[in-house]
Structure formats: C-alpha cells, structure tokens
Design a protein that fits this description.
alpha+beta; Arc Repressor Mutant, subunit A; 7-stranded mixed sheet; 4-stranded antiparallel sheet; 6 helices; 29% helix; globular; transmembrane; Winged helix-turn-helix transcriptional regulator; membrane; transmembrane helix
C-alpha cells in the first residue's frame, strides 16, 4: 500500500510539473510602436511561444491594420486569421514569433497637435517621430529616454493618450541675391568644321560613359534565381518586374502593377524577400521604396 501510494504521488507530481511547463501558450517578450510623421504607426510584437500549441491568439491594438506579417524564428511566414482585434496565429512548432503591422487608427491631428491614443494589454515601448515635442501625457511613463532624435517612452499596460507637436520642415530660400554680371568676354571664333568635330567627339565620350555606367548598374536577375531556387513563380515575376524598372520601385506602384495579388499577400512576399536579402525596403518621405539589394 505504501509503495502504491508513493507511485500515485510521483505520478501526480509529474503531471503537475508538466502542466506547469506546458500550461502557457505564449509570453509577451517585446511590443514596440514606431510612430512616423504622417501618423502611421508600425507595431512590432515579439513572442516566446509554447511549441506544443497548434494556435495562439493575441490582441491587436487596432481594428484597421495593414501589411500584417507573422514570422517564426526561422523567418517562415505563418498563417493567421484576424477578427476585430483578435489575431489567431497557426503557430504549431514555433518557439518564437514576430508579428508586424501598420495602422493609422491610433493617431489623430487637430490644429497642428498630434495625439496618439490606445488601450494596450501589454507593456510596450513607444518611439515618437524625430524631433517631436510632448505637450501632454495621460499618465507617467516608466522611463523616458531618447534615441536617434526620437523620444522613447516605456509604458505599462492600460489606456494611454500622448499629445505632441512636430517641428516644421524649414524652407530655405535662396538668399544669395542678384550678383553683378561679369563683363562679357570676347570669345574667339572657331571654324564651323572644328566646332562640329568637337561636338561629335563629346557625344561619343558621353555615350560611351553612359553605356559603361548602364552595364555596371545592370542587374543579373538570373543569378539571383540560381542562388535562390526556392523562389516561387510569383516571386520570380515580381523580381523581374522590379529589375526592369532599374532595380527600385515604390510600393504603391508595385501594387498597381500586380492588382491580381492581394495587397497583404504582396507585402508579405516583399518582406520574405527582404528577409532572404534579395530586396531592401526603405522609407522615402511617407512612402515605402522597394529595391533589389546590390551585392
């Protein structure tokens, strides 16, 4: 009886420890809000996951999101479903997940004053636009610091309202003023034939330099395909199109060129190609520019 009792006790202990270990779906590791001058907010959320769970559900900070991306620790795209602010991610086997999305719903502007407002279930970090000056905080942040001319706020979970103003982009007029015209020089006269020969020679030099420059900038798209045989047909077509446009194109024009590909699908494709080192995405003004990485 004593032996049987010990066996039962050990079994219960093992089950309890197993439940303790596998009892969580995920832990929030890091949530960041990167705010741009035009009011766009890019949200990044990093999660530590229980790989035995087939799905996890997280809460988004907005009902209107775009450019949604979910990647595991191997930069593999994960499927997901979004209903209202709930995002269900099919995460079986994933130990870490990065979720990214964009939204304009968290910001508003009135009389030159921007306001960022949200209700977060997570502790998070907010990075305001460059040069922003805070004029109102609904509560006291945990930490306030700066990074690359951005004010960075570390906030606890809950409802927040942050108002700020942005510096005007200065316009620099030409203050050099009119200058006195130099006295006219008496230009020597050259024979017409000599001038024609000189113009033709200059055209030949310029044309040769242009051809050499163009060859240097030419993109060997086939070598990219050989290095990445895992690329699918859609990815190859998109890459060929970008190469035909000189290796760079704005995201908006890329979407117009491929209306048959859903916007979210195309953006996920671009982000996957960026993770592979084939593409590079950068902000130009308020737009995203997609360009082929030059090795």
């Amino acid at each position: 009886m004593i032996l049987r009792g010990c066996q039962v006790y050990i079994l219960v202990l093992v089950i309890s420890l197993t439940s303790l270990f596998y009892g969580y779906a995920y832990n929030d590791n890091y949530v960041e809000l990167l705010v741009y001058r035009d009011g766009l907010v890019h949200v990044t959320q990093r999660l530590k996951c229980n790989e035995t769970y087939p799905t996890i559900t997280i809460k988004l900070l907005s009902t209107k999101v775009e450019n949604v991306l979910a990647l595991d620790e191997n930069n593999t795209l994960l499927d997901y479903e979004i209903v209202d602010t709930s995002m269900k991610i099919y995460s079986l086997g994933a130990k870490e997940i990065v979720v990214e999305y964009d939204t304009f719903e968290l910001t508003s502007m009135e009389a030159g004053v921007w306001t960022l407002s949200f209700n977060s279930p997570y502790n998070l970090t907010v990075k305001l636009p460059e040069g922003a000056t805070i004029i109102y905080l609904s509560s006291v942040p945990t930490v306030i610091t700066s990074e690359a001319n951005r004010t960075v706020l570390y906030l606890s979970s809950g409802a927040w309202e942050i108002s700020y103003i942005l510096p005007a982009i200065p316009f620099k007029p030409d203050t050099s003023g009119p200058s006195e015209a130099p006295p006219e020089e008496v230009k020597p006269r050259y024979p017409v034939e000599l001038m024609i020969v000189g113009i033709l020679a200059a055209l030949i030099v310029v044309s040769g330099a242009f051809i050499i420059h163009k060859r240097k900038r030419s993109i060997d798209i086939e070598s990219i395909f050989r290095e990445h045989p895992e690329l699918n047909d859609d990815e190859r077509v998109v890459l060929k199109f970008i190469a035909s446009r000189g290796g760079r194109i704005f995201e908006a024009k890329l979407r117009k060129a491929f209306p048959e590909i859903p916007r979210t699908t195309l953006w996920r494709m671009v982000k996957r190609l960026e993770k592979l080192g084939i593409l590079h995405v950068k902000k130009v003004g308020i737009q995203n520019q997609v360009e082929l990485s030059r090795k």
